[in-house]
Design brief:
Length: 548
Protein backbone atom coordinates (compact mmCIF):
# COMPACT_ATOMS: atom_id res chain seq x y z
CA UNK A 1 0.00 0.00 0.00
CA UNK A 2 1.41 3.40 -1.03
CA UNK A 3 -0.30 6.77 -0.12
CA UNK A 4 -0.09 9.78 -2.44
CA UNK A 5 -0.79 13.45 -1.74
CA UNK A 6 -3.14 15.35 -4.13
CA UNK A 7 -6.03 17.83 -4.48
CA UNK A 8 -8.65 15.46 -5.80
CA UNK A 9 -7.48 15.22 -9.40
CA UNK A 10 -6.81 12.03 -11.34
CA UNK A 11 -3.05 12.46 -11.01
CA UNK A 12 -1.16 13.22 -7.82
CA UNK A 13 0.50 16.62 -7.53
CA UNK A 14 3.60 15.18 -5.86
CA UNK A 15 4.65 11.64 -5.05
CA UNK A 16 6.86 10.59 -2.21
CA UNK A 17 10.46 10.12 -3.28
CA UNK A 18 11.21 6.52 -4.16
CA UNK A 19 13.75 4.55 -2.12
CA UNK A 20 16.26 2.35 -4.00
CA UNK A 21 15.81 -1.40 -3.50
CA UNK A 22 18.47 -3.43 -1.77
CA UNK A 23 20.39 -6.01 -3.81
CA UNK A 24 19.31 -9.02 -1.77
CA UNK A 25 17.40 -10.11 1.31
CA UNK A 26 19.21 -10.57 4.60
CA UNK A 27 20.62 -14.08 5.03
CA UNK A 28 18.92 -16.37 7.52
CA UNK A 29 20.95 -18.50 9.92
CA UNK A 30 21.84 -22.09 9.07
CA UNK A 31 19.55 -23.46 11.77
CA UNK A 32 16.67 -21.29 10.52
CA UNK A 33 17.15 -22.54 6.95
CA UNK A 34 17.35 -26.17 8.08
CA UNK A 35 14.24 -25.78 10.20
CA UNK A 36 12.36 -24.12 7.31
CA UNK A 37 13.36 -27.03 5.02
CA UNK A 38 13.17 -29.65 7.74
CA UNK A 39 10.97 -32.01 5.76
CA UNK A 40 13.54 -32.10 2.94
CA UNK A 41 16.30 -32.88 5.44
CA UNK A 42 14.19 -35.57 7.12
CA UNK A 43 13.24 -37.12 3.77
CA UNK A 44 16.85 -37.17 2.55
CA UNK A 45 18.01 -38.66 5.85
CA UNK A 46 15.31 -41.31 5.68
CA UNK A 47 16.27 -42.22 2.11
CA UNK A 48 19.96 -42.49 3.05
CA UNK A 49 19.24 -44.68 6.07
CA UNK A 50 16.91 -46.77 3.95
CA UNK A 51 19.64 -47.24 1.36
CA UNK A 52 22.09 -48.26 4.11
CA UNK A 53 19.58 -50.72 5.58
CA UNK A 54 18.86 -52.15 2.11
CA UNK A 55 22.58 -52.63 1.51
CA UNK A 56 23.01 -54.41 4.85
CA UNK A 57 20.01 -56.65 4.21
CA UNK A 58 21.25 -57.66 0.75
CA UNK A 59 25.04 -57.70 1.26
CA UNK A 60 26.68 -61.10 1.66
CA UNK A 61 28.32 -61.45 5.10
CA UNK A 62 32.04 -62.17 4.90
CA UNK A 63 34.06 -63.99 7.56
CA UNK A 64 37.81 -63.62 8.13
CA UNK A 65 40.09 -66.43 9.32
CA UNK A 66 43.66 -65.69 10.40
CA UNK A 67 46.71 -67.80 11.18
CA UNK A 68 49.77 -66.31 12.90
CA UNK A 69 53.35 -67.54 12.44
CA UNK A 70 56.65 -66.83 14.14
CA UNK A 71 59.56 -67.21 11.72
CA UNK A 72 63.13 -67.42 13.03
CA UNK A 73 66.05 -67.73 10.61
CA UNK A 74 68.75 -70.34 11.16
CA UNK A 75 71.54 -71.82 9.02
CA UNK A 76 73.27 -75.23 9.13
CA UNK A 77 76.98 -75.41 10.05
CA UNK A 78 79.37 -77.18 7.73
CA UNK A 79 82.66 -77.50 9.63
CA UNK A 80 83.26 -74.24 11.52
CA UNK A 81 80.85 -72.11 13.55
CA UNK A 82 80.62 -69.35 10.94
CA UNK A 83 77.31 -70.64 9.56
CA UNK A 84 75.45 -70.58 12.88
CA UNK A 85 72.26 -68.72 13.76
CA UNK A 86 71.86 -65.54 11.74
CA UNK A 87 70.43 -62.27 12.98
CA UNK A 88 66.80 -61.42 12.40
CA UNK A 89 65.97 -59.09 9.52
CA UNK A 90 62.80 -56.98 9.34
CA UNK A 91 62.88 -56.92 5.54
CA UNK A 92 63.33 -60.67 5.55
CA UNK A 93 59.92 -61.05 7.23
CA UNK A 94 58.30 -59.08 4.41
CA UNK A 95 60.07 -61.37 1.94
CA UNK A 96 58.63 -64.39 3.74
CA UNK A 97 55.19 -62.76 3.70
CA UNK A 98 55.31 -62.35 -0.08
CA UNK A 99 56.63 -65.88 -0.40
CA UNK A 100 53.63 -67.21 1.57
CA UNK A 101 51.24 -65.79 -1.06
CA UNK A 102 53.41 -66.63 -4.07
CA UNK A 103 52.15 -68.76 -6.96
CA UNK A 104 54.09 -71.99 -6.13
CA UNK A 105 52.84 -72.11 -2.54
CA UNK A 106 49.24 -71.23 -3.45
CA UNK A 107 49.27 -73.86 -6.22
CA UNK A 108 50.62 -76.40 -3.74
CA UNK A 109 47.86 -75.52 -1.25
CA UNK A 110 45.21 -75.99 -3.94
CA UNK A 111 46.49 -79.51 -4.65
CA UNK A 112 45.78 -80.68 -1.11
CA UNK A 113 42.82 -83.04 -0.61
CA UNK A 114 39.41 -81.37 -0.58
CA UNK A 115 40.62 -77.86 -1.42
CA UNK A 116 39.50 -77.81 -5.06
CA UNK A 117 35.95 -78.81 -4.07
CA UNK A 118 35.40 -75.82 -1.77
CA UNK A 119 32.32 -73.77 -2.64
CA UNK A 120 34.23 -70.50 -2.68
CA UNK A 121 36.35 -71.85 -5.58
CA UNK A 122 33.54 -73.43 -7.64
CA UNK A 123 32.93 -70.44 -9.93
CA UNK A 124 36.56 -69.23 -10.04
CA UNK A 125 38.29 -69.85 -13.38
CA UNK A 126 41.76 -69.01 -12.03
CA UNK A 127 41.98 -70.17 -8.38
CA UNK A 128 45.63 -69.12 -7.99
CA UNK A 129 44.95 -65.60 -9.22
CA UNK A 130 41.89 -65.37 -6.99
CA UNK A 131 43.87 -66.42 -3.92
CA UNK A 132 46.72 -63.98 -4.71
CA UNK A 133 44.21 -61.14 -4.50
CA UNK A 134 42.14 -62.56 -1.63
CA UNK A 135 44.88 -63.74 0.74
CA UNK A 136 46.23 -60.95 2.94
CA UNK A 137 49.66 -61.25 4.60
CA UNK A 138 50.86 -58.70 7.15
CA UNK A 139 53.90 -58.31 9.41
CA UNK A 140 53.46 -56.88 12.90
CA UNK A 141 54.79 -53.36 13.47
CA UNK A 142 55.73 -53.99 17.10
CA UNK A 143 56.55 -57.70 16.81
CA UNK A 144 57.89 -60.20 14.28
CA UNK A 145 54.67 -62.14 13.74
CA UNK A 146 53.40 -62.92 10.23
CA UNK A 147 49.59 -63.00 9.90
CA UNK A 148 47.93 -64.82 6.98
CA UNK A 149 44.22 -63.95 6.53
CA UNK A 150 41.44 -64.82 4.09
CA UNK A 151 37.92 -63.36 3.82
CA UNK A 152 35.10 -65.58 2.54
CA UNK A 153 31.30 -66.04 2.83
CA UNK A 154 32.00 -69.53 4.23
CA UNK A 155 33.87 -69.36 7.58
CA UNK A 156 34.79 -73.06 7.69
CA UNK A 157 36.22 -72.99 4.16
CA UNK A 158 38.22 -69.82 4.89
CA UNK A 159 39.87 -71.48 7.91
CA UNK A 160 40.56 -74.68 5.94
CA UNK A 161 42.18 -72.79 3.07
CA UNK A 162 44.35 -70.60 5.35
CA UNK A 163 45.63 -73.69 7.17
CA UNK A 164 46.37 -75.35 3.83
CA UNK A 165 48.42 -72.31 2.73
CA UNK A 166 50.36 -72.36 6.02
CA UNK A 167 51.08 -76.09 5.60
CA UNK A 168 52.25 -75.53 2.01
CA UNK A 169 54.51 -72.69 3.18
CA UNK A 170 56.11 -74.85 5.88
CA UNK A 171 56.49 -77.78 3.46
CA UNK A 172 58.18 -75.51 0.92
CA UNK A 173 60.82 -74.44 3.44
CA UNK A 174 61.30 -78.03 4.61
CA UNK A 175 62.01 -79.13 1.02
CA UNK A 176 64.44 -76.25 0.56
CA UNK A 177 66.22 -77.25 3.77
CA UNK A 178 66.45 -80.90 2.72
CA UNK A 179 67.88 -79.95 -0.68
CA UNK A 180 70.56 -77.74 0.89
CA UNK A 181 71.36 -80.19 3.68
CA UNK A 182 71.58 -83.07 1.22
CA UNK A 183 74.29 -81.27 -0.76
CA UNK A 184 76.36 -80.61 2.36
CA UNK A 185 75.71 -84.09 3.78
CA UNK A 186 76.84 -85.75 0.56
CA UNK A 187 80.17 -83.91 0.65
CA UNK A 188 80.76 -84.63 4.34
CA UNK A 189 79.91 -88.33 4.06
CA UNK A 190 82.29 -88.75 1.16
CA UNK A 191 85.08 -87.08 3.12
CA UNK A 192 84.22 -89.09 6.24
CA UNK A 193 84.52 -92.39 4.36
CA UNK A 194 87.93 -91.42 3.05
CA UNK A 195 89.14 -90.22 6.44
CA UNK A 196 87.90 -93.36 8.20
CA UNK A 197 89.85 -95.57 5.81
CA UNK A 198 92.92 -93.40 6.29
CA UNK A 199 92.51 -93.48 10.09
CA UNK A 200 92.27 -97.26 10.08
CA UNK A 201 95.37 -97.69 7.97
CA UNK A 202 97.41 -95.23 10.10
CA UNK A 203 96.36 -96.90 13.33
CA UNK A 204 97.33 -100.27 11.93
CA UNK A 205 100.71 -98.91 10.82
CA UNK A 206 101.32 -97.34 14.25
CA UNK A 207 100.50 -100.59 16.07
CA UNK A 208 102.66 -102.63 13.76
CA UNK A 209 105.55 -100.22 14.30
CA UNK A 210 105.25 -100.50 18.10
CA UNK A 211 105.13 -104.28 17.87
CA UNK A 212 108.22 -104.28 15.67
CA UNK A 213 110.09 -101.94 18.03
CA UNK A 214 109.38 -103.07 21.64
CA UNK A 215 112.19 -101.03 23.03
CA UNK A 216 110.73 -97.73 21.74
CA UNK A 217 111.06 -95.02 24.36
CA UNK A 218 109.00 -92.18 22.85
CA UNK A 219 107.79 -90.69 26.11
CA UNK A 220 111.29 -89.59 27.15
CA UNK A 221 111.65 -87.41 24.08
CA UNK A 222 108.63 -85.13 24.61
CA UNK A 223 110.85 -82.30 25.83
CA UNK A 224 112.78 -82.13 22.55
CA UNK A 225 112.28 -78.78 20.78
CA UNK A 226 112.10 -80.31 17.32
CA UNK A 227 109.49 -82.82 18.38
CA UNK A 228 107.39 -80.14 20.14
CA UNK A 229 107.55 -77.92 17.06
CA UNK A 230 106.57 -80.90 14.94
CA UNK A 231 103.54 -81.47 17.18
CA UNK A 232 102.44 -77.83 16.91
CA UNK A 233 102.85 -77.90 13.13
CA UNK A 234 100.77 -81.08 13.09
CA UNK A 235 97.95 -79.28 14.92
CA UNK A 236 98.25 -76.29 12.57
CA UNK A 237 98.14 -78.61 9.58
CA UNK A 238 94.97 -80.23 10.96
CA UNK A 239 93.32 -76.83 11.35
CA UNK A 240 94.35 -75.86 7.79
CA UNK A 241 92.92 -79.11 6.41
CA UNK A 242 89.63 -78.47 8.23
CA UNK A 243 89.52 -74.97 6.80
CA UNK A 244 90.13 -76.37 3.32
CA UNK A 245 87.31 -78.90 3.70
CA UNK A 246 85.04 -76.13 5.01
CA UNK A 247 85.86 -73.90 2.03
CA UNK A 248 85.36 -76.74 -0.47
CA UNK A 249 82.02 -77.75 1.04
CA UNK A 250 80.82 -74.13 1.04
CA UNK A 251 81.96 -73.74 -2.57
CA UNK A 252 80.08 -76.88 -3.66
CA UNK A 253 76.94 -75.74 -1.84
CA UNK A 254 77.22 -72.31 -3.51
CA UNK A 255 77.53 -73.96 -6.93
CA UNK A 256 74.42 -76.07 -6.28
CA UNK A 257 72.43 -72.98 -5.24
CA UNK A 258 73.61 -70.88 -8.17
CA UNK A 259 72.59 -73.62 -10.64
CA UNK A 260 69.01 -73.73 -9.30
CA UNK A 261 66.87 -70.52 -9.71
CA UNK A 262 64.75 -71.34 -6.65
CA UNK A 263 67.82 -71.95 -4.50
CA UNK A 264 69.47 -68.85 -5.97
CA UNK A 265 66.51 -66.73 -4.82
CA UNK A 266 66.77 -68.11 -1.29
CA UNK A 267 70.58 -67.71 -1.39
CA UNK A 268 70.36 -64.02 -2.39
CA UNK A 269 67.63 -63.36 0.20
CA UNK A 270 69.82 -64.86 2.94
CA UNK A 271 72.90 -62.89 1.86
CA UNK A 272 70.84 -59.68 1.64
CA UNK A 273 69.50 -60.25 5.15
CA UNK A 274 73.08 -60.53 6.47
CA UNK A 275 74.10 -57.34 4.71
CA UNK A 276 76.16 -59.11 2.05
CA UNK A 277 74.40 -57.78 -1.01
CA UNK A 278 76.52 -54.58 -1.17
CA UNK A 279 76.73 -52.55 -4.32
CA UNK A 280 74.61 -55.06 -6.25
CA UNK A 281 71.73 -54.30 -3.90
CA UNK A 282 72.25 -50.57 -4.40
CA UNK A 283 72.25 -51.07 -8.17
CA UNK A 284 69.08 -53.16 -7.94
CA UNK A 285 67.39 -50.46 -5.84
CA UNK A 286 68.43 -47.83 -8.38
CA UNK A 287 67.05 -49.90 -11.29
CA UNK A 288 63.75 -50.51 -9.46
CA UNK A 289 63.45 -46.80 -8.64
CA UNK A 290 64.05 -45.96 -12.30
CA UNK A 291 61.36 -48.49 -13.35
CA UNK A 292 58.87 -46.89 -10.95
CA UNK A 293 59.71 -43.43 -12.28
CA UNK A 294 59.25 -44.57 -15.89
CA UNK A 295 55.96 -46.30 -15.04
CA UNK A 296 54.71 -43.05 -13.49
CA UNK A 297 55.87 -41.17 -16.59
CA UNK A 298 54.11 -43.76 -18.79
CA UNK A 299 50.86 -43.27 -16.83
CA UNK A 300 51.13 -39.48 -17.26
CA UNK A 301 51.83 -39.82 -21.01
CA UNK A 302 48.90 -42.24 -21.31
CA UNK A 303 46.56 -39.44 -20.25
CA UNK A 304 48.00 -37.11 -22.88
CA UNK A 305 48.74 -39.22 -25.96
CA UNK A 306 47.68 -42.57 -27.46
CA UNK A 307 49.44 -45.91 -26.95
CA UNK A 308 51.00 -45.72 -30.43
CA UNK A 309 52.78 -42.45 -29.74
CA UNK A 310 56.61 -42.67 -30.07
CA UNK A 311 57.05 -41.31 -26.55
CA UNK A 312 54.92 -44.12 -25.14
CA UNK A 313 56.85 -46.73 -27.12
CA UNK A 314 60.17 -45.30 -26.02
CA UNK A 315 59.25 -45.39 -22.32
CA UNK A 316 57.97 -48.96 -22.63
CA UNK A 317 61.19 -50.08 -24.33
CA UNK A 318 63.22 -48.45 -21.54
CA UNK A 319 61.11 -50.24 -18.87
CA UNK A 320 61.57 -53.59 -20.65
CA UNK A 321 65.35 -53.02 -20.81
CA UNK A 322 65.51 -52.23 -17.10
CA UNK A 323 63.40 -55.29 -16.20
CA UNK A 324 65.89 -57.46 -18.11
CA UNK A 325 68.63 -55.84 -16.04
CA UNK A 326 67.26 -57.21 -12.70
CA UNK A 327 67.97 -60.92 -13.44
CA UNK A 328 71.40 -59.91 -14.73
CA UNK A 329 72.17 -58.23 -11.39
CA UNK A 330 71.12 -61.37 -9.50
CA UNK A 331 73.28 -63.46 -11.82
CA UNK A 332 76.21 -61.09 -11.33
CA UNK A 333 75.82 -61.34 -7.57
CA UNK A 334 75.73 -65.15 -7.78
CA UNK A 335 78.85 -65.21 -9.94
CA UNK A 336 80.62 -62.87 -7.50
CA UNK A 337 79.69 -65.08 -4.55
CA UNK A 338 80.89 -68.14 -6.42
CA UNK A 339 84.17 -66.40 -7.26
CA UNK A 340 84.63 -65.51 -3.58
CA UNK A 341 83.98 -69.13 -2.60
CA UNK A 342 86.49 -70.38 -5.19
CA UNK A 343 89.06 -67.84 -4.00
CA UNK A 344 88.54 -68.97 -0.43
CA UNK A 345 89.20 -72.58 -1.48
CA UNK A 346 92.41 -71.55 -3.25
CA UNK A 347 93.60 -69.54 -0.23
CA UNK A 348 92.82 -72.43 2.11
CA UNK A 349 94.71 -74.84 -0.13
CA UNK A 350 97.72 -72.50 -0.33
CA UNK A 351 97.74 -72.12 3.46
CA UNK A 352 97.55 -75.89 3.88
CA UNK A 353 100.39 -76.33 1.37
CA UNK A 354 102.59 -73.83 3.22
CA UNK A 355 101.97 -75.46 6.59
CA UNK A 356 102.58 -78.88 5.10
CA UNK A 357 105.87 -77.62 3.63
CA UNK A 358 106.95 -76.41 7.08
CA UNK A 359 105.73 -79.66 8.59
CA UNK A 360 107.70 -81.72 6.07
CA UNK A 361 110.81 -79.61 6.67
CA UNK A 362 110.49 -80.05 10.41
CA UNK A 363 109.91 -83.74 9.88
CA UNK A 364 113.17 -84.04 7.96
CA UNK A 365 114.95 -82.39 10.86
CA UNK A 366 113.30 -84.81 13.27
CA UNK A 367 114.62 -87.74 11.25
CA UNK A 368 118.13 -86.82 12.40
CA UNK A 369 117.08 -87.97 15.86
CA UNK A 370 116.33 -91.47 16.83
CA UNK A 371 114.88 -93.01 13.70
CA UNK A 372 112.39 -95.04 15.63
CA UNK A 373 111.16 -92.03 17.64
CA UNK A 374 110.81 -89.93 14.52
CA UNK A 375 108.93 -92.62 12.69
CA UNK A 376 106.62 -93.27 15.62
CA UNK A 377 106.05 -89.55 16.14
CA UNK A 378 105.13 -89.20 12.51
CA UNK A 379 102.76 -92.14 12.67
CA UNK A 380 101.10 -90.93 15.87
CA UNK A 381 100.81 -87.35 14.63
CA UNK A 382 99.19 -88.48 11.41
CA UNK A 383 96.87 -90.77 13.32
CA UNK A 384 95.79 -88.05 15.81
CA UNK A 385 95.33 -85.56 13.01
CA UNK A 386 93.13 -87.95 11.06
CA UNK A 387 91.21 -88.99 14.21
CA UNK A 388 90.35 -85.36 15.13
CA UNK A 389 89.21 -84.62 11.63
CA UNK A 390 87.13 -87.80 11.55
CA UNK A 391 85.49 -86.92 14.88
CA UNK A 392 84.58 -83.42 13.67
CA UNK A 393 83.12 -84.79 10.44
CA UNK A 394 81.08 -87.33 12.38
CA UNK A 395 79.72 -84.59 14.67
CA UNK A 396 78.68 -82.42 11.74
CA UNK A 397 76.99 -85.32 9.97
CA UNK A 398 74.97 -86.08 13.11
CA UNK A 399 73.91 -82.43 13.41
CA UNK A 400 72.76 -82.26 9.80
CA UNK A 401 70.89 -85.56 10.06
CA UNK A 402 69.16 -84.30 13.20
CA UNK A 403 68.05 -80.98 11.68
CA UNK A 404 67.37 -82.07 8.11
CA UNK A 405 63.59 -82.26 8.55
CA UNK A 406 63.15 -79.13 10.66
CA UNK A 407 63.00 -76.73 7.71
CA UNK A 408 65.24 -73.88 6.57
CA UNK A 409 63.56 -71.69 9.13
CA UNK A 410 62.27 -72.27 12.63
CA UNK A 411 58.56 -71.74 11.89
CA UNK A 412 56.17 -71.82 14.83
CA UNK A 413 52.40 -71.71 14.33
CA UNK A 414 51.23 -69.39 17.11
CA UNK A 415 47.58 -69.42 16.09
CA UNK A 416 45.79 -71.92 13.86
CA UNK A 417 43.09 -70.46 11.61
CA UNK A 418 39.61 -71.13 13.00
CA UNK A 419 36.12 -70.41 11.56
CA UNK A 420 35.02 -66.92 12.54
CA UNK A 421 31.91 -66.75 14.73
CA UNK A 422 30.83 -63.30 13.52
CA UNK A 423 31.11 -61.63 10.10
CA UNK A 424 33.75 -58.95 9.63
CA UNK A 425 32.02 -57.38 6.63
CA UNK A 426 29.73 -55.52 6.19
CA UNK A 427 30.07 -53.59 9.45
CA UNK A 428 26.53 -52.63 10.43
CA UNK A 429 27.39 -49.84 12.84
CA UNK A 430 29.91 -48.25 10.51
CA UNK A 431 27.62 -48.56 7.47
CA UNK A 432 24.62 -46.98 9.24
CA UNK A 433 26.82 -44.24 10.68
CA UNK A 434 28.09 -43.43 7.19
CA UNK A 435 24.51 -43.49 5.84
CA UNK A 436 23.44 -41.12 8.64
CA UNK A 437 26.33 -38.73 7.95
CA UNK A 438 25.80 -38.81 4.17
CA UNK A 439 22.04 -38.32 4.54
CA UNK A 440 22.54 -35.40 6.91
CA UNK A 441 25.09 -33.72 4.61
CA UNK A 442 22.92 -34.23 1.52
CA UNK A 443 19.80 -33.01 3.32
CA UNK A 444 21.47 -29.87 4.66
CA UNK A 445 23.12 -29.23 1.30
CA UNK A 446 19.82 -29.65 -0.55
CA UNK A 447 18.06 -27.36 1.93
CA UNK A 448 20.74 -24.69 1.48
CA UNK A 449 20.58 -25.04 -2.30
CA UNK A 450 16.78 -24.70 -2.44
CA UNK A 451 16.87 -21.76 -0.06
CA UNK A 452 19.52 -20.05 -2.20
CA UNK A 453 17.46 -20.29 -5.41
CA UNK A 454 14.19 -19.38 -3.63
CA UNK A 455 13.78 -15.56 -3.86
CA UNK A 456 10.37 -15.30 -2.18
CA UNK A 457 9.70 -12.72 0.59
CA UNK A 458 8.50 -14.47 3.73
CA UNK A 459 8.07 -11.77 6.38
CA UNK A 460 7.18 -8.12 6.91
CA UNK A 461 10.73 -7.43 8.03
CA UNK A 462 12.05 -8.64 4.67
CA UNK A 463 9.55 -6.35 2.88
CA UNK A 464 10.74 -3.34 4.82
CA UNK A 465 14.41 -4.29 4.38
CA UNK A 466 14.30 -5.08 0.65
CA UNK A 467 11.88 -2.33 -0.54
CA UNK A 468 13.04 0.34 1.87
CA UNK A 469 9.46 1.48 2.76
CA UNK A 470 7.58 1.28 6.06
CA UNK A 471 5.02 -1.46 6.73
CA UNK A 472 1.65 0.00 7.81
CA UNK A 473 0.24 -3.33 9.00
CA UNK A 474 -0.19 -7.04 8.46
CA UNK A 475 -3.58 -8.68 7.75
CA UNK A 476 -3.88 -12.33 8.91
CA UNK A 477 -4.90 -15.08 6.48
CA UNK A 478 -8.65 -15.58 6.21
CA UNK A 479 -10.30 -18.96 5.88
CA UNK A 480 -10.50 -20.28 2.32
CA UNK A 481 -14.15 -21.38 2.57
CA UNK A 482 -15.37 -17.80 3.12
CA UNK A 483 -16.67 -16.06 0.00
CA UNK A 484 -15.23 -12.84 -1.43
CA UNK A 485 -18.33 -10.91 -0.28
CA UNK A 486 -17.85 -12.10 3.30
CA UNK A 487 -14.13 -11.32 3.24
CA UNK A 488 -14.78 -7.85 1.72
CA UNK A 489 -17.07 -6.92 4.65
CA UNK A 490 -15.07 -8.59 7.43
CA UNK A 491 -14.84 -5.36 9.45
CA UNK A 492 -18.60 -4.85 9.32
CA UNK A 493 -19.74 -8.46 9.88
CA UNK A 494 -17.07 -9.51 12.43
CA UNK A 495 -15.70 -6.33 14.03
CA UNK A 496 -14.04 -8.22 16.89
CA UNK A 497 -11.94 -10.52 14.66
CA UNK A 498 -8.16 -10.28 14.28
CA UNK A 499 -8.59 -9.27 10.63
CA UNK A 500 -10.93 -6.37 11.56
CA UNK A 501 -8.46 -5.17 14.17
CA UNK A 502 -5.64 -5.34 11.57
CA UNK A 503 -7.63 -3.16 9.14
CA UNK A 504 -8.29 -0.60 11.84
CA UNK A 505 -4.55 -0.55 12.62
CA UNK A 506 -3.78 0.16 8.97
CA UNK A 507 -6.42 2.96 8.93
CA UNK A 508 -4.76 4.57 11.96
CA UNK A 509 -1.29 4.27 10.37
CA UNK A 510 -2.58 5.99 7.23
CA UNK A 511 -4.12 8.85 9.18
CA UNK A 512 -0.95 9.51 11.06
CA UNK A 513 1.23 9.13 7.94
CA UNK A 514 -0.66 11.51 5.63
CA UNK A 515 0.89 15.02 5.56
CA UNK A 516 -1.53 17.68 6.93
CA UNK A 517 -4.42 15.22 6.56
CA UNK A 518 -5.20 16.35 3.01
CA UNK A 519 -4.60 13.10 1.04
CA UNK A 520 -7.47 12.34 -1.36
CA UNK A 521 -6.23 9.16 -3.07
CA UNK A 522 -4.79 5.86 -1.90
CA UNK A 523 -3.35 3.29 -4.33
CA UNK A 524 -3.75 -0.39 -3.39
CA UNK A 525 -1.63 -2.74 -5.52
CA UNK A 526 0.07 -6.19 -5.42
CA UNK A 527 2.57 -8.18 -7.51
CA UNK A 528 -0.03 -10.71 -8.78
CA UNK A 529 -3.81 -11.05 -9.21
CA UNK A 530 -5.78 -12.68 -6.41
CA UNK A 531 -3.54 -11.34 -3.65
CA UNK A 532 -6.47 -9.50 -1.90
CA UNK A 533 -6.40 -5.92 -3.24
CA UNK A 534 -10.20 -5.67 -3.48
CA UNK A 535 -10.72 -7.20 -0.04
CA UNK A 536 -8.22 -4.73 1.46
CA UNK A 537 -9.79 -1.72 -0.29
CA UNK A 538 -13.34 -2.71 0.79
CA UNK A 539 -12.49 -3.34 4.45
CA UNK A 540 -10.28 -0.23 4.62
CA UNK A 541 -13.10 1.89 3.22
CA UNK A 542 -15.50 0.47 5.83
CA UNK A 543 -13.08 1.27 8.67
CA UNK A 544 -12.62 4.82 7.38
CA UNK A 545 -16.39 5.26 7.10
CA UNK A 546 -16.86 3.95 10.62
CA UNK A 547 -14.32 6.53 11.77
CA UNK A 548 -16.33 9.33 10.10
Amino acid sequence: MNPFDGNGGAEPDMAQPSVPLQAEAPHASLLAIVWRRRWIVVLTLALSLGAGFTYLSRATPLYTSTSKLYVEKTGPRIITESEGVMTQSYNYLYTQGELARSTPILASALERPGIRSLRMLNEVSNPVGYLKSAVQVSVGKKDEIISISLESPYPEEAATLVNAIVDAYITFHANQKRNTAAEVLKILQKEKTRRDAELSSKLKAMLEFKQTNPSLAYEGREGNVILERLARLSEALTAAQLETIDAEAACEATKAMVADPAKLKQFIAARRARGGYGSIQSEEARVRAEIERLELQLAQLGRQVTDTHPAIQGVRERIATLRQRLPELASSFAEAELAVAVQRVEEARQKEAQIRAFFDKQLEEAKGLNTQVAQFTMLKSDWEQTRKLSDILDERIKEINGTEDTGALNITILEVARPASAPTSPQKTRTMAMALAIGMMLGVGLALGLDWIDQRIRSADEVSTILGVPVLGVVPQMRERESIEVKGRKVENDPTSHAAEAYRTIRTAIYFGVPNGNSKRIVVTSPAPGDGKTTLASNLAITMAQAG
